[in-house]
Give the backbone structure.
Amino acid sequence: MRLNQVTVTMPDLDAGWAFYCTLGLKPIVDSRPRYARFVYPDGESTFSLHQGESGSGGTTVYFECDNLDEKVSGLREVGLRFVSEPEDKSWLWREAELFDPGGNRIILYFAGSNRIDPMWRLDCSR
């Protein structure tokens, strides 16, 4: 099984379009104002936006970046506002946080091998 896509809801897809293009996602479907879909620059997974009223910001999306500090710096230079700077976390990831125009929490992070193989990983062979 592979993850195909994640879809988040937001009221203004034009604002979402600009935000996710600025993050570096590449548009592949433009059916605004109701739907838009992007492909990640690395890999084959996709990310989409669906027009609708946002909930209470309960969605969190993680995007891994090999060069996290440089990515955050570049995004800040083009006007994106972060609520937290890149910081080393106790779970061995380095993360920075911002919100998209629909209020969805976005975490840019770097985890390396700790992404799927942390020291505390469960033994799946049981």
Remarks:
- Residues 13-23 form the longest helix (11 residues).
- DSSP finds two helices and eight strands in the chain.
- The two ends are 20 Å apart (CA to CA).
- The mean pLDDT is 89.
